[in-house]
């Protein structure tokens, strides 16, 4: 049965879950965003089918069909892979961190500035369980889960009861159901 509509279908999930629409579920025009995600509970709309497909792969199917031939990391779209491949070209990393003891380099000034904030920001979010402090609320939240033992992220795959403290770990887990491998051995005939 289709995960989004409950109907039986022989087409692949990626073919079933998007189509060109001009109105949302309430009959309102979608303006310039004609591609709508049809997964249950998700009504995101997009101007391009490629952007919709990337959304589906990142948020719903965890599919990553495009692999880097250098580090074997996998990506949901060719565009993501092209952007990633630039990190392997050293001459593209012309922005160097000036923090003492840090050798990090970046392709863009904005990436360097974001990185510098991690050195410079006050760690204004303290953990009430231990003496650690964090510079972002999201990192503090993730850290607190190490104390509580809570596992708020649950796999929704049929008959799977796996739970995780971290959303990224859940996404990686879901890839095992789909047969997606983030890293693939480049040795001929290995298949692992």
TrEMBL record:
GO MF annotation, one: DNA-binding transcription factor activity, RNA polymerase II-specific
Presence of the UniProt keyword Transcription regulation in the record: yes
Region ranges (Disordered): 1-25
Compartment(s): Nucleus
Family matches, as InterPro entries: Snail/Krueppel_Znf (IPR050527), Znf-C2H2_ribbon (IPR031799), Znf_C2H2_sf (IPR036236), Znf_C2H2_type (IPR013087)
Coarse class of the protein's main subcellular location: nucleus
Keyword Cell wall biogenesis/degradation belongs to the record: no
Keywords: DNA-binding, Metal-binding, Nucleus, Repeat, Transcription, Transcription regulation, Zinc, Zinc-finger
The C2H2-type domain, residue ranges: 35-65, 66-93, 95-124, 125-152, 153-182
GO cellular component terms attached to this protein's record: nucleus
PANTHER family xref list: PROTEIN ESCARGOT, ZINC FINGER PROTEIN
Family: Belongs to the snail C2H2-type zinc-finger protein family.
Name the record gives this protein: C2H2-type domain-containing protein
């Amino acid at each position: 049965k289709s995960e989004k509509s409950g109907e039986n279908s022989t087409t692949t999930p990626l073919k079933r879950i998007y189509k060109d629409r001009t109105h949302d579920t309430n009959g309102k025009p979608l303006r310039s965003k004609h591609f709508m995600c049809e997964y249950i509970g998700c009504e995101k709309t997009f101007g391009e089918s490629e952007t919709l497909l990337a959304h589906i792969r990142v948020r719903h199917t965890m599919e990553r069909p495009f692999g880097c031939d250098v580090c074997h990391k996998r990506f949901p779209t060719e565009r993501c892979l092209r952007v990633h491949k630039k990190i392997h070209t050293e001459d593209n990393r012309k922005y160097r961190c000036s923090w003492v003891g840090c050798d990090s380099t970046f392709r863009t000034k904005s990436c360097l500035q974001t990185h510098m904030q991690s050195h410079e920001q006050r760690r204004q979010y303290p953990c009430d369980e231990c003496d650690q402090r964090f510079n972002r609320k999201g990192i503090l939240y993730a850290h607190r889960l190490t104390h509580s033992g809570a596992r708020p992220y649950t796999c929704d795959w049929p008959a799977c009861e796996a739970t995780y403290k971290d959303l990224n770990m859940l996404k990686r887990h879901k890839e095992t159901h789909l047969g997606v491998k983030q890293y693939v051995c480049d040795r001929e005939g290995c298949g692992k």
